[in-house]
C-alpha cells in the first residue's frame, strides 16, 4: 500500500534530521520547511497528505498555519512541539490540528501517529460525502453541517466529533475511543470532551429542538441516535 506524502515543518536542525531519518527508514516521501512562510508555500505547491508541524517557528506561530490550512483543506496535521501546557494543546487542537506530540518524543510513537492519520485518510476516501440523519446533514467534501437547511458554525473539533458519531450511528462510542480518534492516541481529557459535546448539542438543538441526535451514556460515552426525517403533511 502506497504511503502518504508528508511535509515536515521544523526549524530545529537536530529534530528536523531526526524526523527525516525516521521517515527515510520507513520509506516515506516528504519535503521539509524551516519557517512558516516556506511551509505555506510548500503546502500550496505540493498538497501534502500529512503535515508534521512544530509550533515555535521563527517567523510565525504554528497555530496560524493550522488555521490557514483549515480554511481550505482537511489535511491531517500532527503537531510536534516542546510546548507541554494544556492551554497550548487545546489551542492547537481547537484550531484544527489532528494530533499533538510533545518533545522529546519517541520516533516509534511518531510513526504510530502517522499510521493513524493514514487510516483516517483512507477511511474518508471510502465514505460517501453526504450523511443525512433526520434533519442533520453532514457534507464531508464541503466540510459543512446543516440542520433544517441552516448551516451550523462548528469548530474543527466539533466537526470531527460529529463525523465520528455519524460513522457509527446507533453505536455507543466510549470516551477513550472518541478521545483517541479525535484528539490522538494518548489523550485523556474527558472534561474537555464533555464541554465540546454540550456546545455541539446546543448548536443542533437551536434548529431542531424536537429530536435528540446525541445521547449520553453516563460513565461510558456517547452515541448518535437514528432520527426519522420530518415528513410534511
How is this structure best described in words?
- Helices cover 42% and strands 20% of the residues.
- By secondary structure, the chain is α/β, with parallel strands linked by helices.
- The protein folds into two domains: 5-125, Response regulator (Rossmann fold, 3-Layer(aba) Sandwich), CATH 3.40.50.2300; 128-224, Winged helix-like DNA-binding domain superfamily/Winged helix DNA-binding domain (Arc Repressor Mutant, subunit A, Orthogonal Bundle).
- The chain has a five-stranded parallel β-sheet with strand order 2-1-3-4-5, sandwiched between helices.
- Helix 2 packs parallel to helix 3 (62-70) and helix 6 (156-166) crosses helix 8 (190-205).
How are the SSEs placed, and which strands pair?
Elements: E1 5-9, H1 13-25, E2 29-33, H2 36-46, E3 50-53, H3 62-70, E4 77-81, H4 86-95, E5 99-102, H5 107-126, E6 130-133, E7 136-139, E8 144-147, E9 150-151, H6 156-166, E10 173-174, H7 175-182, H8 190-205, E11 214-217, E12 221-224
Parallel strand pairs: 1-2, 1-3, 3-4, 4-5
Antiparallel strand pairs: 6-7, 7-8, 8-9, 10-12, 11-12
Helix pairs in contact: 2-3, 6-8
**Could you list the spans in which at least 5 consecutive residues all have pLDDT below 50?**
none
Measured by DSSP, the beta-strand proportion falls in 15-25%
What is the H level of CATH, i.e. the homologous superfamily of the largest domain? Response regulator
From N to C, what is the helix and strand string?
A: EHEHEHEHEHEEEEHEHHEE
Tell me the helix content.
40-55%
How many strands?
A: 12
Q: Give the helix tally.
A: 8
Oligomer: single chain
In this structure, how is the largest beta sheet organized?
5 strands, parallel
How far apart lie the N and C ends? 51 Å
Rg, Cα atoms, Å: 19 Å
What would you call the structural class? alpha/beta
Under CATH at level 1, the class of the largest domain stands as Alpha Beta
Shape: elongated
How many domains make up the 3D coordinates? 2
